[in-house]
Amino acid sequence: MTAAEVLRRLVVDVPDFPEAGVVFKDITPMLADPDGLALVVDALADAGRDADGQRCVDAVWGMEARGFILGPAVALALGVGFVPVRKQGKLPRETHAVSYALEYGEATLEVHTDAAGAGGRVLLVDDVLATGGTARATVELVEACGGTVAGVAVLMDLAFLPWREALGDLPVTSLMTVS
Questions:
Q1: What are the chain's domains?
Q2: What is the dihedral sign for C-alpha 134, 137, 143, 149?
Q3: pTM of the full structure
Q4: How far, in Å, are 2, 10, 21, 62, 97 from residue 48 at the CA level?
Q5: Closest CA to 107 of 141, 81, 145
């Protein structure tokens, strides 16, 4: 079974959540299935390996909130550390911050200033890639810390939204495309 097949089988669509017209992608059934979760984590970790299967990243960064669930497992699979990218006001030490536009309003993400050393190659991990705003803001945070984004790995991308515009030619690994 492929990661995409696992996701099609175990991700549940929840209509009109959190508001009317939105179809929420509930990944909790996939998280509860150990075989499916292992397959998905391995597939996401492949985005942090080169063509020879060797690790090509120094860290995994996961965006709040579901990137916190997937990112540490991917980091362990790659044998690297994990960095949480938090919503504003959640980190206790000096931070870099980037604000970005949401569909309705604005949000700010933060990371500790010492999160990635100069030259560190980072894999970004999250669940859904929609407009690309969160991922773009995280790219800016990696760069502010002296690192370089090697790629983005997500469970699924929403093909009907303009995420590619926000990420340009950055390598993106998506395990499933939702049309």
A1: 3-178 (3.40.50.2020)
A2: positive
A3: 0.94
A4: 18, 24, 35, 13, 25
A5: 141
Taking residues 172-177, report their average pLDDT.
96
Task: Return the half-sphere exposure (C-beta side, CA atoms, 13 A cut-off) of residue 100.
Answer: 18
CA-to-CA distance for 115 and 39, rounded, in angstroms? Answer: 28
- Catalytic residue chosen out of the listed positions 19, 94, 103, 106: 103
Q: Which residues lie below 8 Å from residue 168, measured CB to CB, with a gap of 6+?
A: none
Q: Which band of pLDDT confidence, cut at 50, 70 and 90, is reported for residue 103?
A: low
CA distance 98 to 111: 9
Q: Tell me what the pLDDT averaged over the chain comes to.
A: 93
Q: Which of 19, 66, 86, 140 is catalytic?
A: 66
Pairwise CA distance, residues 138 & 146, whole Å: 13
Residue 115: per-residue pLDDT = 85
Note if 66 is an active site residue.
yes
* Burial 74-94, CB ≥16 within 10 A → b, else e: bbebbebebbbbbeeeebeee
